[in-house]
């Protein structure tokens, strides 16, 4: 037997999809229903402005109410309303006659916005929390009667003549037993604050009490009285929806405090206002950044037509700008079918590129307009610029003109300025320019002072991402290397092939080496004797630049975990021209030679912060003993 046919998708498949898969977070039902009410309210305003509705608009605010005893939540608007035929067209179609089409469209992420707009999918999120939903509605067209629609989440519904007298729609949700949490004032207020805070039509949620001035008493003291007022939960004209020309600095700062009440004032901000080739508005603030990256992230809020969507904006905003704060609003960013998260497409990439360009242009403008102010903010701005130069090639090209390097004397240079500053004195025998840097000027001061004796400049690179930035600079700058100030003795940091004559003979050097080998007695130390200037340190302890850099990157999670576990090897350089070298050799007792050598070595270890525990205790006791002699 042979039979051909079509597999039918039944209407009862719709509700499980909505309840189980479509919305992962049940609280979104309120966002969807309030957004629908706002849309209906805006449509009646639009029809009125076009002259297609000639009646009185009246107060078109949306109201949200709940009744804990009746276990209901009501969303009421005075928008365009619906007739019975429109209910059948816009409400029933998706769940019933449009089921097959819905499931087909649901598979294709690109059609997500179309599904929501065409089929009113957001309305059905109500069944995540309600055992029954009622619609009481009356169209703005006088010839249409009021209608009532009731559905219990099954495939059955009922449409009857309604008793609503005024234009608009009431959605009544009978909350199911699993969703009683939503019959709580603070819970509902929290959801409204999160998703509806900036909707363009006033949202009323009950009332609130406020203390207001009420004259003075007989002694002239101010008196107050408590008044009850409507609790309007939203700001219908958020700052990003206003033209930048109409705003002042205090407006931007006030809005920042509204978004982040416990944050310090931002450094500056960028107002986005694009209408072609995509629609994008928003305000991005540059905060004062702390060293903890994760604490700073996820502070940008994404809106679509003033409806909050998410604060996960990693595809819209470049990774290096995830530390910014603020708001982005775009109806052109594709969302998944539940409007809960982003879908990646060409528009997202264009918006991402536009934001990168706007930030680069703003930073360049600030640098050129007021360099002194820019330098004062660099400790905060620098983290964005460096992060961007590391991660975004196009940003790097723009940023190399306004990226700054700071030296140990707190002087600032652009990349080109610094090259010209150090090239004459810090070029080695192979014609490579060497940038010397410090990651901790306090601990590395002895090494910095040694460098300064040679008139070398030392950069301060103590930021949270400077280890990575150093690598980026070496990749981008021609014939340039960066070396930490304590990575080697100064003559080897910048090797100019200039040799100092030793005051010790080869035999004396051999004897001195034996003394230090016994005094140090460690396998992880590579001992060298070198002829340095007499005023250099008697003993220098260094870790090779490569080894130290890998360990530093491993410590901050740079994907070098294996390097972080490698044993630490240090180079110990004894300056044979320092007076202490001769003093050790002249000591009559072997015990005294060992004591002086150990003391000189421990001083070098102490300068690197490597002396601790019993070694530190012994050093202190030995110092007291030597001072007392």
UniProtKB/TrEMBL annotation:
Limits of the Histidine kinase/HSP90-like ATPase domain = 25-165
Protein encoded by which gene: htpG
What protein name applies here?
Molecular chaperone HtpG
The family line of this record is: Belongs to the heat shock protein 90 family.
Alphabetized Gene3D superfamilies for the sequence: 3.30.230.80, 3.40.50.11260, Heat shock protein 90, C-terminal domain, Histidine kinase-like ATPase, C-terminal domain
- Note the CDD domains from the entry: HATPase_Hsp90-like (cd16927)
Its keywords, alphabetically, are:
ATP-binding, Chaperone, Nucleotide-binding
Cited InterPro entries: HATPase_C_sf (IPR036890), HATPase_dom (IPR003594), Heat_shock_protein_90_CS (IPR019805), HSP90_C (IPR037196), Hsp90_fam (IPR001404), Hsp90_N (IPR020575), Ribosomal_Su5_D2-typ_SF (IPR020568)
